[in-house]
UniProtKB/TrEMBL annotation:
Transmembrane segments: none annotated. The keyword Hydrolase applies. Coiled coil: none annotated. Pfam families: CN_hydrolase. Residues 1-256 form the CN hydrolase domain. The keyword NAD does not apply. InterPro entries: C-N_Hydrolase, C-N_Hydrolase_sf, Nit1/2_C-N_Hydrolase. This is Carbon-nitrogen hydrolase family protein. It comes from the Bacteria. One of its GO terms (molecular function) is hydrolase activity, acting on carbon-nitrogen (but not peptide) bonds, in linear amides. It comes from Aquincola agrisoli. Keywords: Hydrolase.
Length: 275
């Protein structure tokens, strides 16, 4: 089956961002994609971190959630909806939420980003936790496909640095390993240049699965530059499709036979002794 990571350079204007996402989803659908993934904050890259609070939605209701549901239904595909701000009990805080919609437009899963990014190099400081509330639990979902259920683990950006999260997705309550891991992101340029591909390939190798990583990629109107390099990585750790910067569709084939062969030839998942 074909899957597509959609790379964006989102702006402070939600309507413009949704229009860009709509173009990319339509392009991917036209190319035969059965599943598309949007980047973190596809709907808004504000001028201030607090801007997202004005656009935070109530679970199950709001223009961004409706857009994702309608896009999935219109094109008859699965949409991993990057992230959007979701309201919490505290009006000064939101959750960074990934919603997944099936081909009929129904909500299949919700994941709230667990690990919140903080950075301080002595000159520049950033703390995502100043506005965001962390999620509670790992989430994996069996997505419907023509080839049968596709067990998909959900994560967001900074989560990528915590391999125990991906183990928890795959082996909670006797569930099998993930076939696909999704990592929507807005990696900073310096950390992306140093670690993005390295970490994505590591997650693919250690979990012997595909990784789809839809990213923000370029210089944004708020002055921030994101690393981009949206990609799909196969279970052997090979990058099978990538786009460095700019808006675009990164399309690849998810080959279940290739994944099964890797797991049979090197049955590392069955050799686990801890966890």
């Amino acid at each position: 089956m074909k899957i597509a990571a959609l790379q964006m350079v989102s702006t402070p204007d939600v309507d413009r961002n949704l229009a860009a996402a709509q173009r990319l989803i339509a392009e991917a659908a036209g190319g035969g994609a059965a599943l598309v993934a949007l980047p973190e904050y596809f709907c808004l890259m504000g001028r201030r971190d607090t801007d997202k609070l004005a656009h935070a939605e109530t679970p199950g209701d709001g223009p961004i959630q409706r857009f994702l549901s309608e896009a999935a239904r219109t094109h008859g595909l699965t949409v991993i909806g990057g992230t959007l701000p979701m309201k919490t009990a505290d009006p000064a805080r939101a959750r960074n939420t990934c919603c997944v919609y099936g081909p009929d437009g129904a909500l299949l899963a919700r994941y709230d980003k667990l690990h919140l990014f903080r950075y301080d190099n002595g000159k520049e400081r950033y703390d995502e936790g100043a506005v965001l509330e962390a999620g509670d639990l790992p989430v994996a979902v069996d997505l419907p496909t023509a080839q049968g259920p596709l067990r998909t683990g959900l994560s967001v950006c900074y989560d990528l640095r915590f391999p125990e999260l991906y183990r928890a997705m795959s082996f909670t309550e006797g569930e099998g390993p993930c076939d696909l891991i999704s990592v929507p992101a807005a990696f900073t340029y310096p950390t992306g240049q140093a670690h993005w591909e390295l970490l994505l390939r590591a997650r693919a190798v250690e979990n012997q699965c595909y990784v789809i990583a839809a990213a923000q990629g370029g210089t944004h109107e708020n002055g921030r530059r994101t690393w981009g390099h949206s990609m799909v990585v196969n279970p052997w750790g090979e990058v099978v499709a990538v786009q460095a910067e700019g808006e675009g569709v990164v399309m690849a084939e998810l080959d279940r036979a290739r994944m099964a062969a890797v797991r049979m030839q090197l049955p590392a998942l069955g050799h686990r002794r801890l966890g």
